[in-house]
Design goal:
Helix content of chain A: 40-55%
Order of helices and strands of chain A: HHHHHEEEEHEH
Number of strands of chain A: 5
Largest sheet of chain A: 3 strands, mixed
Structural class of chain A: alpha+beta
Number of helices of chain A: 7
Low-confidence stretches of chain A: 1-11
CATH architecture of chain A: Orthogonal Bundle
Shape of chain A: globular
Bound molecules: zinc ion
Mean pLDDT of chain A: 90
Oligomer: homodimer
CATH topology of chain A: Arc Repressor Mutant, subunit A
Radius of gyration of chain A: 17 Å
Strand content of chain A: 15-25%
CATH superfamily of chain A: Winged helix-like DNA-binding domain superfamily/Winged helix DNA-binding domain
Number of domains of chain A: 1
DNA sequence: GGCGGCGGTGATACACTGTAACAAACCCGC
DNA sequence: GCGGGTTTGTTACAGTGTATCACCGCCGCC
């Protein structure tokens, strides 16, 4: 869940996220390498959607540069495992904090003020979208639904004029 | 030129589209310049979503090159006037063949086989999405909904089993 | 031990997408 | 014709993503 109370709250789930990722990779017989771990950690700690180049810069230290291409490869892996999502409207990436049923759609709620991205899902939206597509004679394989606006915390913080 | 080659989803036809655009610009006191006209025509004739650089190349002839930056400016104008849409998941542009009520959402149906993009809208999807957002305490300003899959024509043409 | 395949990483180069900045051309009313 | 806004040309650059090859570490096999 996306929280705005402060950094501690935002970062609280990072450890859990890493532990979950490690377990999931072991379970699937895949390698949770240091680079993949670092990329996931960087995405999880950021509190907002991160570009691949942002991650590369964040992970680079004097004497040890992480090239964007390596970040892209790690992100591809993490996306295949469902640990990270790509936000098409921002060319940026977020950690998955939701845990999805197979085939379930996701709605990304992107706050234009704080930049945070929350995930939601809705059987109702799924159903009505499915009916609309069927009516149009269209067979879907994949869909993206991204909403921009103001999250509750930011709306409360700046009450209407 | 080539207007009746395929079964293409030129619902309205390129000519109608250009006439509509010209009338709309006159009505709003805006300039429907040759470049803007050419860009809209290129997008409308393509039959599938076009990248800005594709359009630039299509409009360029020996001795008269159209720079991508000019295409981007024309596309910005056409998008402001609601004559063209941008497909975020493809970094590409399509002509608007739908005609939208103000504030109405759009669903883009992107065929992975023929590359064509159709538009749909649904009060039902709008409503259920609005309720889901309200439940999440999120105030939307703009949303994108893009579905990838197979259009009816392509599904019929390749009967699977 | 040596050896070869395999997946992951490093490194460079490149393609694609989009924007900033400034100059020149154009249009339109005065 | 003149002045001011708009449109376009041109160049340069920033941002995003991919291709390619080489190297390394690991594991199974001879
Ligand atoms: Zn998720
Ligand atoms: Zn916010
Ligand atoms: Zn439209
Ligand atoms: Zn199709």
């Amino acid at each position: 869940m996306h929280r705005h109370e402060g950094h501690d709250a935002c970062h609280a789930g990072t450890g859990d996220m890493l532990a979950r990722a490690e377990g999931l990779c072991r379970e699937r017989g895949l390698q949770f390498t240091p680079l993949r771990r670092d990329v996931l950690e960087a995405v999880a700690e950021a509190g907002k959607a991160q570009g691949a180049y942002d991650i590369a810069e964040r992970l680079s230290v004097p004497g040890k540069r992480v090239a964007p291409v390596s970040v892209y490869r790690a992100l591809d892996f993490l996306m295949e495992q469902g640990l990270v999502h790509r936000i098409a409207s921002r060319n940026a990436f977020i950690p998955c904090t939701h845990g999805h049923a197979p085939g379930e759609g996701v709605i990304f709620l992107i706050c234009r003020t704080c930049g945070g991205v929350d995930e939601a899902s809705s059987e109702e939206v799924e159903g009505s979208l499915g009916r609309t597509l069927e009516r149009a004679g269209f067979t879907p394989t994949h869909s993206i639904l991204e909403v921009e606006g103001d999250c509750g915390a930011c709306r409360d913080r700046k009450p209407a004029p």
